[in-house]
Every structure is written in C-alpha cells, then in structure tokens.
Amino acid sequence: MISILCVNPWIHDFAAYDFWSKPLGLLSLAAILKAHDCNVTYIDCTDRFHPRALPVSDPPARFGRGPYRKTRINKPDILSHIPRHYSRYGIDRQWFADDLRALHVPDLVLVTSIMTYWYPGVHETINMIKQVFPDVPVVLGGLYPLLCREHAEKHSPADAIAPGVSGLDVLNLVETHTGIPIPPRFDADDPDDRPFPAFGLQHNINYVTLLTSTGCPFRCPYCASSFIHPVMTRRSPASVVGEIGYWYKTHHVQNFVFYDDALLIDAEAHAIPIFEDLISRKLPLHFHTPNALHVREINEKTASLMRHAGFETIRLGLETADFTSRKKFDAKVTKEEFERAVACLKQAGFAGRQIGAYLLVGLPGQSFSSVEDSVKTVVETGITPIPAYYTPIPHTAMWPDAVANSAYDLAAEPLLTNNAILPCSEGGFSWETITRLRRLAAY
After folding, report:
1. Which of 31, 134, 147, 238 is the most buried (most CB within 10 A)?
2. Burial (0-12, 13-18, 19+ Cβ within 10 Å), 80
C-alpha cells in the first residue's frame, strides 16, 4: 500500500487568525488518495487542537474561529523596516518533529501553500520534513507555486512543485514520484463523483469548509479567481446538502463555511435548491460566507432563505462605496443594488452585526479619503464595514498597476506583496493609517 503524508505548513506573518481557514484543496486530494486505498496521514502545522496544546478556548460565539498558537521569530531582512512583530503561527517545532518521527516512513510527502507571502513558513516546514525523511520526495502544491512559479522553482526546498493539481491529477503525481500506477475509480469530470474532503484526518472538526462551485463569471482586476479556475464548475445541490448532512450526522459539525467565489450566481438552479433542502431538514446548523456574496444576487427570496437556513455570517463583496468611479475596479454592483441588498437582509431578520461589507484598502492610486467615505457610507446603512487590505496578486489585471505604483519590487519578492505592509499605498505602512481605519470602522 502506498503511504502518503499530507502537510499543511506553518504561517510566517505579522498577524494571523483562524478565520475558518482550512487547506481544502489538500484535504480533497487526501480524500481521493484514501478512496484509492492509499495510506494517508495528515499533519496540520497550524492545528489549534493539537494533542499537546493546552485546552483551547472554542466559545460557540466564535462559530469555530480562533487564535493560532504564536511564536515570535525574526523578520526577514527585507521586512526589517516594518515596525511590527513577526511570528510563526502554529504548533511548536518540537511537536512537529516528534509527529514526523512517530510516522512510518512515507513514500511521498505533499505540502500545500496558501498566501504567496507565507512561503518562508512553507520552506521551514519542508526543511524539517527533509531532515526527518531525507530520502522521501517532497512535492509542493497550492497557490504559492501556482501564482509565483519561477520563485517557487528557484527557492523552494521541495523536490518538485505541482501547481494546480486537483482531482484525479493527484494519481498521476503519485505515479510520477513513486513509480506505482493507480487506476482511477471515478469520473474525473464529475464533481459529484468525488469523495468529501478528508476532514476526518484532523484532531478536531469544529467547522467544515464547503466548495459547491469553482470559478466566477466576473473578472475583477484585483482577483485571481479566473486564473486559478478558468472554467466555472458546480456540484449538484443534492451533493452539497448530502455532504452537510454527512458531517453533521457523523461528527456533529454545526458550523459550515462556504468557500465559493460565486455562491448566488444563477441562484434558482443552485443556491436556492440547497437552501430549501436545508430548511426542510430543520438541522441546528450555522452557515458563514467569508469569501463574500455578490451583492447584486441578494433579493427578498435569497435573503429570506439564507436566514431560515441558518446563515449567521453574511459578507458582501462591496469593495468600494465610491460608485461614481468604481468601474475602474469592477462593475459588480450599483449604489441602488447595494442599498436594496442591505434592506432585504435586514427585512429577512439579519442584524447589522451579522452583515459585513468588505472595502478594499491600499489599492494602487487609492486615496485614504475615498476609503473614509466608503466606510461612512457603509456605516450609514447600519451594517459593518470590514477593511480588506489589498494584496497584489500576479496574473491579475491590476498586477501591472500594483508593480508600477509600489515602492517595492513586487515582481522579485513575494514577501513584499504582504497586505500587512500596505505595499501599494502612498507612503507605505503607517500605524497612523491603520489606527484611523480601525477607529473609523468601529464607530
């Protein structure tokens, strides 16, 4: 039997928090490998519920969110000018080393990655794996090698990179690095034919992340969704509700988090049947939308169904309330559509604290006064403004403007795209700016 170790790496950053963050792609590949009789083990270096951790506070009001374990470390030299502390977020190094040594030697190690500027944590993770298993091939996947391929090929300590691996592609990957072919057991083109992600490999399942579709019909210049998923695909509503019921029945999970970029698009054929089925089952569940909903798709019907289905956290993809000039960013929503969506959500019974509108901060050429005006506009509607600090992303339409407007060499160093340093803001990082925004958003 082929033995595969899957690893979610540490985070190195100025700040990090578990806002329903799970390596869904890696856990999906793990499930596919398990379904093909591979022996799959999993180590999450950001595990808040590691057996050696102190009892973790997990109050119901957080709906599964919570702080990572944090260890102060030195900042990378290129970030030494930023007046903030830098940390490793996740389990202790010794715990990870001990967990690795407790395993039988695997045939292959798969390591994922998320934010491109978290790559130092990825590299530290891979280096420790190779210290314990020096003769085992380590393959790096996830967003870092997909979006910054040249950098990953040049600097990653992995034996190989595999950007964009999904579905049955993982079987070919295993054959490439072990020499053992694995005949596929299901239809690669049918998303309903795949096993549910392997959340059961975790020490604790306090929430489950759901992906009912991939891709997005919009092409917003600051977003890489169309590069990551050029074609939009969808699971059937029955498959989605079946997965929710499975995790509730087998592991008593009550918090579910939609990772979709376009959950409400063509709602009559997709989201509405899901919501109606959930309502009919009368399960005590909570749903959350951290990836944001398209404002234009929220009407009386969708708002009412979300409320009755158990949605607790509504996030709107507003990005800016400067409706006169927003076309240079996107054309997803008008002022009237935003006001209508908020009114529908409130009429359905959602409180202002449950509804948040993301507002992009630090875009190339963006003035702070325009951000202030957007925050005030959102506050006036009675919902919560949520500043979303802009991260320049390669392969997006806004990337050339970001490179041109930044004081940093973004193209050469992913660390400099960290939204915590406001890489495209005039004057760069400023505690004064951050403080003003926090105070403004809180009033």
Report:
1. 147
2. exposed
- Is residue 42 within 8 Å of 201, Cβ to Cβ? yes
- Measure the CA–CA gap between 214 and 263, rounded to whole angstroms: 9
What band does 166 get if pLDDT is binned at 50, 70 and 90?
confident
Rounded (10°) CA dihedral 112, 116, 122, 124: 180
Q: What is the dihedral of CA 30, 32, 35, 38, to 10 degrees?
A: -50
Are 85 and 14 in contact by the 8 Å Cβ rule? The answer is yes
Residue 430 pLDDT level (bands cut at 50, 70, 90): confident
Percent of the chain with pLDDT over 70: 98
**Cβ–Cβ under 8 Å, residues 246 and 196:** yes
Q: Residues near 291 by Cβ (< 8 Å), separated by ≥ 6?
A: 258, 259, 260, 261, 263, 315
- Coil, strand or helix: which one is 150? helix
Confidence (pLDDT) at 328: 66
Whether residue 45 contacts residue 8, with contact meaning beta carbons closer than 8 Å, is answered with yes
Which range among 23-32, 37-46, 55-64, 114-123 shows the weakest confidence by mean pLDDT?
55-64
Place of tokens 């997965």: 243
Question: How would you classify the pairing of strands 86-89 and 70-73?
Answer: antiparallel
**pLDDT reported for residue 345:** 98
pLDDT at 102 over 70: yes
pTM over 0.90: yes
Per-residue pLDDT at 275: 98
Strands lying side by side in the sheet with 86-89: 11-13, 86-89, 70-73
| Cα(411)–Cα(64) distance, integer angstroms | 36
Contact 222, 393 (CB under 8 A): yes
Q: Is 251 helix (H, G, I), strand (E, B) or coil?
A: helix
Q: How far is CA 118 from CA 6, 10, 25, 123, 307, in A?
A: 18, 8, 17, 9, 36
Mean model confidence pLDDT for the chain: 94
Q: If 0-12 CB within 10 Å is exposed, 13-18 middle and 19+ buried, where does residue 336 land?
A: exposed
- Amino acid symbol at 307: R
Pairwise CA distance, residues 333 & 373, whole Å: 17
Structure tokens at 178: 């072990």
pLDDT at 428 over 80: no
User: For residues 297 and 261, what is the distance between their CA atoms, to the nearest angstrom?
Assistant: 13
Q: Which residues lie below 8 Å from residue 83, measured CB to CB, with a gap of 6+?
A: 429, 431
